[in-house]
Amino acid sequence: MNIIVFSPHPDDAEVLMGGTIAKYAQKGHDVLIVVVTIPIQKEKRIEESKKAAAILGARLSILDLNPHELVFNRRTVETFDSVIRDFPPDIIYTSWIHDSHQDHITVSRATIAAARRNRCSLYMYEQALPSGLTPYGFRAQAFVDISDTIELKIKSVSAHQSQIQSFSEQWVQGIIARATYMGFQISTKYAEAFEVVKEIKDI
Amino acid sequence: MNIIVFSPHPDDAEVLMGGTIAKYAQKGHDVLIVVVTIPIQKEKRIEESKKAAAILGARLSILDLNPHELVFNRRTVETFDSVIRDFPPDIIYTSWIHDSHQDHITVSRATIAAARRNRCSLYMYEQALPSGLTPYGFRAQAFVDISDTIELKIKSVSAHQSQIQSFSEQWVQGIIARATYMGFQISTKYAEAFEVVKEIKDI
Amino acid sequence: MNIIVFSPHPDDAEVLMGGTIAKYAQKGHDVLIVVVTIPIQKEKRIEESKKAAAILGARLSILDLNPHELVFNRRTVETFDSVIRDFPPDIIYTSWIHDSHQDHITVSRATIAAARRNRCSLYMYEQALPSGLTPYGFRAQAFVDISDTIELKIKSVSAHQSQIQSFSEQWVQGIIARATYMGFQISTKYAEAFEVVKEIKDI
Amino acid sequence: MNIIVFSPHPDDAEVLMGGTIAKYAQKGHDVLIVVVTIPIQKEKRIEESKKAAAILGARLSILDLNPHELVFNRRTVETFDSVIRDFPPDIIYTSWIHDSHQDHITVSRATIAAARRNRCSLYMYEQALPSGLTPYGFRAQAFVDISDTIELKIKSVSAHQSQIQSFSEQWVQGIIARATYMGFQISTKYAEAFEVVKEIKDI
Amino acid sequence: MNIIVFSPHPDDAEVLMGGTIAKYAQKGHDVLIVVVTIPIQKEKRIEESKKAAAILGARLSILDLNPHELVFNRRTVETFDSVIRDFPPDIIYTSWIHDSHQDHITVSRATIAAARRNRCSLYMYEQALPSGLTPYGFRAQAFVDISDTIELKIKSVSAHQSQIQSFSEQWVQGIIARATYMGFQISTKYAEAFEVVKEIKDI
Amino acid sequence: MNIIVFSPHPDDAEVLMGGTIAKYAQKGHDVLIVVVTIPIQKEKRIEESKKAAAILGARLSILDLNPHELVFNRRTVETFDSVIRDFPPDIIYTSWIHDSHQDHITVSRATIAAARRNRCSLYMYEQALPSGLTPYGFRAQAFVDISDTIELKIKSVSAHQSQIQSFSEQWVQGIIARATYMGFQISTKYAEAFEVVKEIKDI
After folding, report:
1. Which DSSP string do the residues of chain A spell out, in sequence order?
2. Which member of F144, F185, F187 has the closest CB to residue E201?
3. F46-104: pLDDT as tens digits
4. How far apart are CA B93 and CA B81, in angstroms?
5. pLDDT tier at F166 (50, 70, 90 boundaries)?
6. What's the CA gap between C152 and C150, in Å, rounded?
7. Phi and psi (nearest 5°) for C2?
8. Which of C137, C185, C186 sits opposite B139 (nearest CB)?
């Protein structure tokens, strides 16, 4: 299968669904991480993203949209359209429509609009932390057991050295705590959780 | 009564509430369809819209806003303000605020903002298909029995030949299926359904 | 896989997900339809249910709870617990928590409570019609293409002769219209739609 | 038209929609207030209800269900069924499904279930105060201008002397404040507001 | 404590939480009202805002953003970031994310994004009236008893003479009615109500 | 202050807000844990609850309602009424209204009904795990930093030996992970999170 993961900034894909990406890759699926914008430290963060994607076994594409022009309009949707045209996905993952960050909201809405043919499944991962508190509660619906890939996930997150420096070591601890907490919900060690926009079930 | 129907693109009004428009017109009400933007095939689609409006007995106004500049901002609201000032409505219909398409969301939000005096009723019609799947469920609240005007509706939809060509004949079948499904909910043959933003009830 | 379908009354399973049940059965999965209560015409309706289940290739279990004592309490949950213990499911389907009918709400809540180990997926099908209008909109999230099993579905629905008599032929037309409408949303001929409570994704 | 107003306890109908009831009555419609249960001071409160209904021009029916047995089950729905069978309504009003009070929730759910034929409109009025705070916000959708009947409303509310004694004069002030506040929203002096469950629109 | 109140236009802060502001000020807290944009009558309205802020005992800052460029994008968030950096708040108040007015929505979203460190509490006040009706119901969660400061509130509102002229005297009556209505909900004379985005509880 | 914590079963209070209880107690507030029902192992679990309450510095009351009769009706609300009458609270904590477990829902609804005077604040804690997955997302709004009381919390949880035996050691790890995850959201080590029903803010 072809799987697209839209990542508003470098590291969102790894932090919020790195274990799931690694699992897809291990099963032979073709995962493309699409980083939408890089507001600062562009070169350094591209380097980190490359390392992280390699760890997970995913391909990487950098849209590099201007962060000051990134709003939910026809231009952005057209850009996402072309990503989907070039790499026709069976499944798409994107950010949460109720995230607090303007770029996460825009990426979520543009993905939903671009996926309008409804011939693929579409899921949203959670908000990044700290920063994601909004007037909405995330509805964890679809769980992936990542007990076998938690180490790859942490390794891929750790490739983002610039973020560990700015958020401190507590950042990684919070990521592990979330995976433990989500795992607990389905009686396994580690899990990642998603909200379903639409799903084409294959029976 | 004066009734305004905001239609993000040509055909939205006909597809989603053509039967209701015809019914208003037959009762002697004055219905104005306002097409907001026409991204492609402008001349052809204006022709089709004219034919469709004539079939339903409605007036037609083409705002023809630039689709690449159509976002929810003061300029768009001011444009909608002037529509309302020129044709003071008793009732307004607009697109669904939770639609997937950027233009439908913008039109919905701009209508809600422009209707701020709250002296008229305001309803939202459903999402267009295929393309409308979002993280929300449409709340069908207000039903109009269109058993008497389903033929006019289908005729007006069929006036949009360009769409039938691009979506195939299944498009019209889906539209009839929706009307049948909505009709079934109120124990009649065909119906159209709306979500209520606000309603000034006349007792 | 073992799949349990809780059906508040005879025919709910067939009307709302008969195509999906047939599809599971054709793929060799073991589907158990659990009819919870039969308020009237008990013998006749059991006969009809048996025929319908046979058509779909599913097993049938009749809990036959007293309809006047069916409320969401510990006793009901314990009954559902024992169903799950006897036939450990990989997937459960149940009625919609926001349905209008007291039995549908009770069955939905009891299923959610009984599935508390969270080791299986849980979906809710839509409300029955006419009768399902409530202050909520159904969030169609997971779609199953039933183009190949629509005939079996209609046959199984038609096995419920008592219902066709009480609702008239329009009942079957409404069911086909819903399948067509849902199919249109994912660009196929016929589909059934579900809201996700929780899903253990197998990658 | 026939209009049924389900009132969980005496005074709910008058407090929350007395102005609307008076308006219907003045236009020649037949309004039936159905008081569901009377937990205390039964005789006194029936007297007050009779006076209040007479002031508004409505008929009164007292179901007098046992308050300790009033839950959302088949028995309660059957009782509501018989009310609807005896007085076939064009419109039904009931309490809010998200109210805090057990009886208000039960009455709301039982009304929604009993109105399952979907051939009449169904609205919910707001929560009573003080006591209505819950984890939900009321969605005021349908507004009735009651500037002409506010005096009748206050008179009908004042007929409930027992409540004025238990809540103090502030109770009536709060009721007027709510009508003023709702009126302000549609640019009139006084209004009452409702949430729409379903509406059969007559065009 | 430092408290920031984002006010999309002059008067929003006073109309929707003037009593609360006065109460904070009387307790010695430092309240900063930040007016974001002034679409018309700029000089006059700044004068009125200064008077109103002085009456409440609050400081005033005028961002004076161009109303035609005010959308939810990185530039706006950066502007809000700098407000927060210059006056590090313990609590922030902002407009409602589901308001009808484009500026209120933008201010709400930009505040939520700018408060991303999550180290301060964040509340939303209600919509202004008339004009606030949207497809959402405000969830009044946090109540402040303003019986002691209602007079200051009305005085501060009255400082906005230009608004009284455009909305008529009924405007002030509506504001008092809302405070009475909200007060009634917590059994006091006057109150203001807020929806909680996030709250760092100090025990 | 007087604080009531309704705990459907033994251990819910400790698992979901033990750190907050300890913090209140350390500040000299009077916390009463009210255990509503004990379905099995009654004596053992009362013993454990006593130990746990003592560790947190809270008082304990055991309602011991019959678990097979615990539904949301007038009788249950009257029982909660009497708890509130005997120990007039400034703040109440209760279970989540959207929990999956029938007893948690009933306790939540009965608390909301019993707190109808609206003169105290009312919060809901999260669902227990594993078992809490429902068609709703918890809206974490109010956070309490429990970094100083996490050890007391874990000690109080560990007093429930019967639960550790039935859920295994992973149960405690999940509880710590949740506290870490919630702490991360407000940039501290450990936190507990609540959804606000209503809050009387003291300024």
Report:
1. -EEEEEESSTTHHHHHHHHHHHHHHHTT-EEEEEE----S-HHHHHHHHHHHHHHHT-EEEE----TTT--SSHHHHHHHHHHHHHS--SEEEE--TT-SSHHHHHHHHHHHHHTTT--SEEEE----SSS---SS-----EEEE-TTTHHHHHHHHHT-HHHHHHH-THHHHHHHHHHHHHHHHTTSS-EEEEEEEEEEE--
2. F144
3. 999 999 999 999 999 999 999 999 999 999 999 999 999 999 999 999 999 999 999 99
4. 15
5. confident
6. 5
7. -95, 130
8. C137
Token pair of A37 as six digits: 């914008």
Question: In this predicted structure, what is the pLDDT of residue C94?
Answer: 98
Residue whose pair of structure tokens reads 């609009």 in the numeric block: A113
State the DSSP string of F54-73.
HHHT-EEEE----TTT--SS
Residue B102 sits at the chain A interface (C-beta within 8 Å): yes
- The pLDDT value given to residue F119: 87
pLDDT of residue C128: 85
What pTM did the predictor assign? 0.96
Question: Among candidates E77, E89, E86, which has minimal Cα distance to E113?
Answer: E77
CA–CA min distance E98, chain D (Å): 12
Q: CB contacts < 8 Å between B and D, how many?
A: 62
Instruction: State the nearest Cα–Cα gap between E194 and chain B, in angstroms.
Output: 22
Chain D CB contacts of B140 under 8 Å are 198
Q: CB-based contacts of D39: which residues, under 8 Å, 6+ apart?
A: D9, D67, F74
Residue A172 CA to residue A160 CA, distance in Å, equals 11
- Token representation of residue A30: 């073709």
Three-state DSSP at F94 gives strand
CA–CA separation, B91 and B84 (whole Å):
11
Q: Please name the residue that has the structure tokens 């086909």.
A: C176
Minimum-distance CB partner of C199 among A24, A119, A142: A142
CA distance D105 to D70: 10
Give tens-digit pLDDT for B26-73: 999 999 999 999 999 999 999 999 999 999 999 999 999 999 999 999
Give me B159's structure tokens. Answer: 């006036």
Is the CB of B203 less than 8 angstroms away from the CB of D141?
A: no
ipTM at complex level: 0.94
Q: What does the alpha-carbon distance between residue D102 and residue D66 come to, in Å, rounded to a whole number?
A: 13
Q: Which helix (H) or strand (E) holds B83?
A: helix B74-86
Whether B14 contacts B163, CB under 8 Å: no
E144: which chain F residues are within 8 Å (Cβ-Cβ)?
201, 203
Integer angstrom CA distances of residue A45 from A48, A126, A142, B144, F6: 5, 21, 30, 55, 49
**Residue in F closest to E199 by C-alpha:** F142
The tens place of each residue's pLDDT in chain D, 203 residues long, gives 999 999 999 999 999 999 999 999 999 999 999 999 999 999 999 999 999 999 999 999 999 999 999 999 999 999 999 999 999 999 999 999 999 999 999 999 999 999 988 789 999 999 988 777 898 999 999 999 999 999 999 999 999 999 988 877 788 999 999 999 999 999 899 999 999 999 999 89
Q: Please give the average per-residue pLDDT across A96-121, as a whole number.
A: 95
Query: How far apart are alpha carbons F189 and F150 in whole angstroms?
Result: 9
Write down the residue that tokens 């006076």 correspond to: D51
Q: Does B88 touch chain C (CB under 8 A)?
A: no
User: Which residues does chain A have within 8 Å of residue E140's beta carbon, measured at their own beta carbons?
Assistant: none
Q: Which of residues 140-199 of E touch D (CB under 8 A)?
A: 140, 170, 173-174, 177-178, 180-181, 183-187, 189, 195
B61 — phi, psi (to 5°)?
A: -130, 135
DSSP character at residue C149 = T
Whose tokens are 């199984």? That residue is C156
End-to-end CA distance of chain A: 16
C179: helix, strand or coil: helix
User: What amino acid is encoded at B152 in this protein?
Assistant: L
Most distant pair of Cα atoms in chain A: their distance = 46
